Each structure stands twice: as C-alpha cells, then as structure tokens.
Prior knowledge:
Shape: globular
Number of strands: 7
Helix content: 40-55%
Number of domains: 2
Radius of gyration: 19 Å
Amino acid sequence: MMKRTITFSLVILLHLAASAQIRVNHTGDELPPKAKDKIGVMVSYMNSFYSRFLLQEEFEVELLTFKDKKEGYRYMRGLYPDDLKYHENPSDKTIGGGIAGVYLPKYKRAVILGMEKGADAALYIIYHELSHHFTRMVFQKRNPPVWLNEGLAEYFEHLKVKGTKISGTEFPEFQKGKIRTLAMLGELDLLNFLNLSQSEFYRINTQDGQYYYGLSYAVVAVLMDTLGKEKMVQLIKEIAARDTSSKISDLVADIYPQGIPGLENNLLKFVQR
C-alpha cells in the first residue's frame, strides 16, 4: 500500500499570549482536503483547552489512517503480535474486537484502523485519538485515570466542526437510558467508578457493551458544564500531581459542590434532558 506523508502545521495562540506550533504528521491512506481542514480546526479548539496546562511550545503527533480495517489490524499485529484484540476470530471470521482507533503513547501516534464508512465518519475517531495525545502530554509519564482519559476523548469526539465553528452533538439516547436504568436500580456507583484501575475499567466496559465510555463522557461533560473550564483544569492538575496513595474520588469531592452526591445529582439531570 502506498503511503503519503501530509503535514498540517498549525500556529495557535496559547492562553498566555505565546504561540505553539502543533504539527500533525499524517501517513497512510489519503484524507480529503475538507477532512484535513476540520482536523486543523478541532486541534486548534483542543489546544484552546489544553494550553491552560502550559504545554511545550512545539510538539508533534503522528496520525496514521487505514481505509481497510484488515490492513489496520495487520499493522497492529506487527506491533503487538500477542494481543488477541487484533487477530481474526476463527469462529466467525471477524477481525478484532471492533476497535476503530487507538493511540500509542510510546510512538506518539494515533492510528485509525478502518475508514470503510468514509472520512467524515472517521473524523470523530480521529478527534478521539488525538485528544489522548494532549491528555498524555498533561500527565507526562504518569497514566491518567482511565475515565478522565476516555471521557475527555469522548467529549471532543462528540463535537462537530462546521467551517471554523465548533458545536456539540447530542449524547446518544441509548447511553442516557443505560445510566438512568442503573441509577433506578441503585447500581450507579460513581465513587467506585472514579477510582477504577485501567484493567478493571476495560474489563467491565467490554462485558457491558462499552457502557463505561458513555459514562466517562457524561461525567466529563457534567464537570465541564458545572465547574467551568478553569476549575476543570484545576481538578486535572490536582489529579496529575496527586500522591499515588490518594483517591481520585476524594479530589473530585473536594472541588465539586456537594461532593460526589452533587456530581451524581447533576449527572442524572444531564441524562434526563
């Protein structure tokens, strides 16, 4: 497969009137010019939030796109031959576990594993994976809490670019319904959710139809909406600098009005809209 390298070079105004050069180096299957323009707008918008963390003035991220999912999974098997997520299932001949994209911190690379539905549909996956790069830069060598990492990625994925404008999209009703149902059954345990390890999060998420991705998005959206971006940045900074013995739920409770019960109450209002 022929690879073409395309570089988006964006000069963006940072929070403290400094300029940052963000370079998105694209390899793989071609993206149409409109898609590249939208990626540029979204990266600029992401930077307007993440620049509050005073990230380095220049940084690069790779974007690797595959049109054919089989090619994408073949590439991932080359990197991680023992990871069964990227292998063919012999019982039904399907490829992998339905993973559309992945961010590889070691390589600073966002990989889009298939664009069979077209570039427009793939854009949301691209936004999601590029957000992981920004979040990883904030946390540097530490792993961000998985709900925060995925929640921020889902938050940016749910945004829509039209021209140079950014607007929100509706939170899917089936995901709202899942959260409402768990709340009615008394099984919405935010205290435990905020403290989940990465392995626990992904294990439960896989078993429960990707529910934790939706809950992560809802929690981050509510935090953004009710705390405001400056307080949200303060919370993320405190989480990034925390002592490993401290609970993330305690940090959230300290900064959020009425603590975790207040967050849960506003979360239920959010899914009832």
